[in-house]
Amino acid sequence: MTQTAERNVFADRSNRLTVTRAGGQLVADYWDNLFAAREQGKQIVWYNGGALNPIFQAAGLAWCHGEAFAARLAAQRLEGPAQLAGAEYGYNAELCSYSRTHLGCSVLTLQGASLESGEGEHTGVVGMQDRRELASRLPSPDFFVNNYAGCSTGQQWDGISYRVFGKQLPIFNISHPFLWGNKPDAGYLTGEEWEEASNFVEGQLHELIAWLEEQTGRPFGWDDLSQSMEYIKRAAELRREGLDLCKAKPAPATFWDWIACVAPINFLPGAQALVDYFAGVRDEIRERLDAGVSGVEGEKYRLYFDGIMNWNKLGFLSRKFAEHGAAVLAGRYIHNAFWQEPHLIDVENPLRGMAQHYLLCPTNHGTRTLDYLTMRDCREYDVDGIVFHSTRTCRAFTGPQRLLARSAQNTLGIPSIFFEGDVADASFYKEEILESRLAAMLEQIDVRRQRGEYTGAARP
Amino acid sequence: MQGWPVTSAPFVILHLLQLSSSSRRLFNVATALEKLTTVARDPRGYVEDWRARHPGRLVLGVLPMNFPRELALAAGTLPVVVQDDQKPVTEGRSLLAEFYCGYTRNLADQAATGRFGLYDAVLMADHCIQLIGAADVVRAILPDTPVFFGMLNSSMNDSWGPARVVAMMGEFRTELERLTGEPVTNQALGAAIAAHNRDRRMVRRLFDDRAAGSAVLSPVRLQDVVTSAMIMDPAEHAGLLAEALAGATAAPPATAPPDHRVRVHLSGHLCHAPRRELLEAIEASGAVIVDDDLYHGRRHVSTDVEEGGDPLEAVARWYQQRNVNIPCPTRVQQDADWDSWLLDAVRRSGAEAVIHLVPKFCEPHMLYYPELRKALDEAGIPHLQIETEHEGIPLESFRTRIEALVERVRRTRAVPA
Amino acid sequence: MKHYLGVDLGSTTSKAVVVDDTGTIEASSIVQMGAVSRAGMQRAVDEALAEAGLRPGDLSGTVSTGYGRRLVPLAQRSFTEITCHARGTSAMVPGARLVIDIGGQDSKAITVDADGLVEDFAMNDRCASGTGRFYEVLARAIECDIGELGTLALRGSTDLEVSSMCATFAETEIISLLAQDLAIEDIAASVHRAIAARTLALVAQVGKRAPVVLTGGVARNPAARHFLSVALDHEVTVPEHPQITGAYGAALLASTHASGPAAAEGDADRPSQVSHTGPHTGPGHSCAECDGRPSAIVELGPVIGVRNW
């Protein structure tokens, strides 16, 4: 047996929130529940894209967000078997690793089902012992719902899952117009295109609900929907409060804490527990502010992180940035996603606000809108530079990055670096590149400070 | 077939000389085919000539794959499907990540180095996220060039889909009217539809003949014919093509040696052309291409627009029908299967093997490929995947793979009855 | 007694094998050389012939393979190294179903049927990852003789997670591990483990089969074999002469093709037929001049797709 060495080569200056452990427990309980859903006699929906879970909750279903499971596997370093099963099925290593990992889970789930029923033979490259691991534990779906705005691969993904499961299961697609901004009145949350797109998606949500009634044979719980959206809206507001509090100097919490909060806000049931959790997050942040405790020991630099999360490297990245005294405070994946505009939600008639949130997927904006959002957040958090995660298999997130980097330099006078990694495939991560470029950018900032320059984006 | 310089003009003329007795007609035939090839290899010359003949009219850059060029033609513009100009990506590297597909990086590069200047505006209909990324770069670098994105509904089985598509075709018409300042009449649209249908039928006939065993043009020439069709006014293209084919015959001369190469179907390259050198390498390695589902192949000409009735609705139905005729993985449709279509195509053409041409980083293809593999394996049809890149074509490596496929197929050929 | 020659002209080595008409190896040679070297090939051929006590005129047939297969003047025909490795390995290890060949610059996974004929294959010839070059990078970085690398790696116990797919970045990873003063046995073992994982991904493309045979220069490395068998969770056989399987297969093919028209590898001169089954009415159907009725056997005759430029 081999042991994995602990490579603790630098002192840990990261000071993560403690309350996120409670969120971790809520999430672990959620997945354990899901793995037992079949035994509990529940119908199971597999979905990708925007957070449809409140609708599923009101329909009495168990729900599984494909990306969320792929992220969980990667975060726990258990993505290997799923990715290998995917490779054996025929998926190329350059394919979006979210979809590749999840589709690998589909393959494992199907193989597991056929082994159990005695029909299948174990012939694959994934070893028998791996089958008992996390990647094989997803229960088969009863149907699919795809709700992907922006990324075309996201829409195709469930269409492929549908085929992997032999075209036997029902599938429902919600289509999202890309918020391109053809018309002169187009802007963030405004304009004719925005209104038209909102109408279209809201209409499809009504169709979805009618379809779910057919699938479940039950009337939809409209009151349940309002109720769960009330909780989710409140949790989202608390989250925004917490995010705003991190504008303080030094910041009481960082981007990495918010990453740890993604799973709860993304797919946990709309319930008091969710509200309590985010209240706890906000409260711990407030306490830190009062006590003068910062998220990074000796905060020297403030940074913005653009890109989808590098799930295999959460702990490592949070320590690495902290090691340099760099507090990563804001990022597109946290600030422009996950119920980020709770004021849009009318809990009595939540569908429109929900539809709008799905349209606000961070990959569904053209560069103009992203430029507005990124520059705004860089100013509000007064960051000294931007770190772009050049995510090897995520073309949706990385498309506008080079343009945003230029804009940040031209508009705000702040530098950017790019580092190579991936959302769920650790083999694409190149540590040396991050280390050397980060160090270089921070030195650049030091030099400007020595010359008496103000290096933050909020300079007057 | 090794050593035949299939792309050189003098060689083409030489072979035509062997077939036709009329040297005057012969001269015109060579010129017509050469003209089509020239347009395909560098559209700029044709575009400039067209502008000179149509002063004040617009040239539109159209991104692949589903934009209805009939509408743009009816608006009096020249809609040019923007081609990968196959030049190495230089400045484009600083605009789009290296893991974007070669075509989209080439688009960004064209915009960054002034090679996009021949278009007055850009229109697109497809939601491939990489195309969107490239279009966004074009929009940012060329702020004076309008870039209109009318995203066609891509989930094809939805009951609300067809109405959305008709509405979007209407949006395209409105935008064209805005760009040109002129209305687009149903009459003009009807005429444009007829012109495109005529040209498509002519080109499609070439593919049908090839699949039935009597090819008139080499794969490279055929690609030039399709590429030039994507660029030219359809009537002009059809005219030149008719001239080019007039002297050529599909009947094999008695003295021609038998062709025992392994018959292959080429599948993939869903939005830009595979390199000519690759097509030549395939045919020089013991294989002969009998059919394809390339965008610069059957996909471009698979579907005609219905003539008669409301032309805008007909164009909308054309879009829906395209994915039934040859399913594309960029669309989500439960009752149209690329894998079943591929099996049918192989049976129709008698292809003995399939070569998948997968551009590196093409996500729609990478996602669907395992389903194709499953279907072909179950049907016992040998196949090979070749990953293509924008720069640095490893021809030796391709030849080895193709030859290995050929070797495998040869030993499984049916014994004559 | 007849004699046949197989020549494998690869990117870094040239191999020649002489067999008799029972398929027994009479002589073999391996010559290390620069890229695709004619001189290296000639030397390999000369040495093999000398060992067998033959002159070129004594040969009844020669087949070439490998990257430089078209550069072998003696050869009557060539086959790809995929076909040759499959053939040679199946003869050396009867019953082999999966052949993994890791050479200096490329790696291949080939599934073979019960007759030793190629079913499917996957190649990595574009990237150093998972090839012999990766081991050279490791050997250089830890300053170990390449011949001793395997023994060293087998002594490793801790997994240091070398995860990078790229050989260049893996080298940087190795250097940083050395800078932390970690044991070179563990570093070597971890790199071997990473390469085995890459190979597993290549195998995944063709499907895992058994028995598994490892060939190529890397097969002489006992640690490579060990870590690969751990990754595959299956025993991995290495034939006695793992480097000459390609040349051996080529020699066997020379013998088969010299013996008459009913060749196992398929005869290019046989005319072909195709059976059009199924209705000509499906979507996308556009057979020229077809009236839509399903047809029986369509005789394409010996002439197919003659080009009229």
Describe this structure in words.
The complex is a heterotrimer of chains A (460), B (417) and C (309). Chain A is of the alpha/beta class. Chain A has one domain (20-450). Chain A has helices at residues 20-35, 53-58, 66-75, 80-89, 97-116, 128-131, 152-164, 192-216, 222-245, 255-260, 262-267, 272-291, 314-323, 332-335, 351-359, 367-380, 395-398, 401-412, 431-450; strands spanning 3-4, 44-49, 62-65, 143-147, 171-173, 301-306, 326-331, 385-391, 416-421. In chain A, strands 3-2-4-5 form a 4-stranded parallel β-sheet, with helices on both faces. The longest helix of chain A is centred in the middle third of the chain and has 25 residues, at 192-216. By secondary structure, chain B is α/β, with parallel strands linked by helices. Chain B has a domain at 250-410: Rossmann fold. Chain B has 16 helices and 8 strands. Chain B has helices at residues 9-19, 23-41, 43-53, 69-74, 102-112, 129-141, 161-180, 186-211, 219-231, 234-246, 276-283, 295-301, 311-325, 338-349, 363-378, 395-410; strands at residues 59-62, 78-81, 121-124, 147-149, 262-268, 287-294, 353-359, 383-388. In chain B, the strands form 2 sheets. Chain B has a 4-stranded parallel β-sheet. A 4-stranded parallel β-sheet of chain B has the order 6-5-7-8. In chain B, α2 packs across α9. The relative contact order of chain B is 0.12. By secondary structure, chain C is α/β, with parallel strands linked by helices. Chain C has 2 domains: 3-93 and 246-258, ATPase, nucleotide binding domain (Nucleotidyltransferase, domain 5), CATH 3.30.420.40; 98-238, Nucleotidyltransferase, domain 5 (2-Layer Sandwich). In chain C, 34% of the residues lie in helices and 20% in strands. Chain C contains 8 helices and 13 strands. Chain C has helices at 38-52, 81-92, 132-141, 149-154, 167-179, 184-206, 222-232, 245-258, and strands at residues 3-9, 13-20, 25-32, 59-65, 77-78, 98-102, 107-112, 118-124, 158-159, 212-215, 236-237, 274-275, 297-298. In chain C, the strands form 3 sheets. A 5-stranded mixed β-sheet of chain C has the order 3-2-1-4-5. A 5-stranded mixed β-sheet of chain C has the order 8-7-6-10-11. In chain C, β6 (98-102) and β7 (107-112) form a beta hairpin. Chain C is globular and about 60 Å long. The termini of chain C are far apart. Chains in contact: A-B, A-C, B-C. Chains A and C meet through β1 and α4 of A and β9, α5 and α6 of C. β1 of chain A pairs parallel with β9 (158-159) of chain C.
